[in-house]
Amino acid sequence: MTNSLRPHGSQRTPLPQEAVPALPTPRDQEAGQQTTAPPAPSAPTGQKPKQRDAFFDNAKYLAIVLVAMGHAWEPLTDTSRTAEALYMTVYTFHMPAFIMISGYFSRSFDMRPDRLRRLITGVAVPYLVFEIAYTLFKRWADDDPTYDFSLLDPWYLTWFLIALFVWRLTTPIWKLVRWPIPLSLAIATLASVSPDIGDDLDLQRVLQFLPFFVIGLSMKPEHFQLMRRRSVRMASVPVFACALLFAYWAAPRMNSAWFYHRDSVQELAAPPWTGPVMTLALFGCSVVLVSCFLAWVPRRHMWFTALGAGTLYGYLLHGFLAKGSRFWGWYDNEWLHKPLGEIAVTIAAGTVITALCTPPVQRAFRFVMEPKMAWAFRKDPAEQARGRTTTGA
């Protein structure tokens, strides 16, 4: 990822290589922490390899815990105003945070063959596998054998993978244009009032979440350092408090579907003028809350830091339990809708997602999440030439 969040003088941390998902696998992040220059032929004896950046691993783990909790709170929102307020607050910033981090680690992406291979094996292949797995799961668990399989209509969590694939491919364009953030925000605004976009590839979400990816592309290490200033941390406390109070007020008055960014205003039965207003308002709120969230992410190594390497695993695997809990009627128990039940659901969600990010789970599912698939690709002529040069030397 990045070698340091503490730039010295006028020196700036080199651009990282791409880490394919915003929830990077260990192999992807290790690649992302290296610079584009090859390693020195003879490194000093005993030199330690580059370490993962604890700050980003911590941020990914804490954000994925909030994702799981948000999914666990959703069935409680009909009967609990507090759960609805927490749900709306978390949904304002947890996916924007992931998407910004993804964009940040896409800054060095180009169409080089090795990076395209990593994009295919780290995003496209997991999308195909989990789209099939989720479809089969829904047919079985929801007793819906006629549910259609479609690669063009992502189901549940797989939308993020297809969105990431599209965003990554457009990275060279955003690096080329002069005002990438305003342009991406204009595209998101237009998408919000364009019902004809349809559901293919979940393009509404792809376009409406696009500005957060572009912001990540435009960020530098010093921007994260600014977020971690003491003044920002102190200001974030009342900001979060105000956000929760506003969400509590808005819970019975506002449609939470606005936070999904998957529908146009026409599909939400809202006047057309609300599209630009809500797009800009939610964008501003999300950026502020993401900054407040990152301001409190620990920089040092924590007990959960190592779990940050497994957030893609937790993200995709917990979807089976999240949907299964609805299909199997787990929330039909009335005690779950009481305060103690809501607390129990929250703790259970955090525990389950933590377990799904652990190294044993990563090892068990690495063949799906990080397939090498050398058999599927032609050998890169440049790599072959380098290999012949090395052998000849």
How would you describe this structure to a colleague?
This is Fucose 4-O-acetylase-like acetyltransferase. Keywords: Membrane, Transmembrane, Transmembrane helix. InterPro entries: Acyl_transf_3_dom, Nod_factor_acetyltransferase. The chain is mainly alpha-helical. It has one domain (about 50-385). It contains 16 helices and no strands. It has helices spanning about 25-30, 55-75, 80-105, 115-140, 160-170, 170-175, 180-190, 205-210, 210-220, 220-225, 230-250, 275-295, 310-325, 340-355, 360-370, 380-390.
Summarize the structure.
The protein is an all-alpha fold and 393 residues long. The chain is 59% helix and 0% strand. Helix 3 (81-104) crosses helix 9 (210-218), helix 3 crosses helix 11 and helix 13 (311-327) packs across helix 14.
What is the averaged pLDDT score? 85
Reported for the largest beta sheet, the result is: none
Order of helices and strands: HHHHHHHHHHHHHHHH
| Radius of gyration over all CA atoms, rounded | 22 Å
Q: In terms of per-residue confidence, which ranges show pLDDT below 50 for 5 or more consecutive residues?
A: 1-20, 25-47
**Class by SSE composition:** mainly alpha
Report the sheet-strand fraction: under 5%
State the total count of DSSP E strands: 0
Shape: globular
Number of separate helices:
16
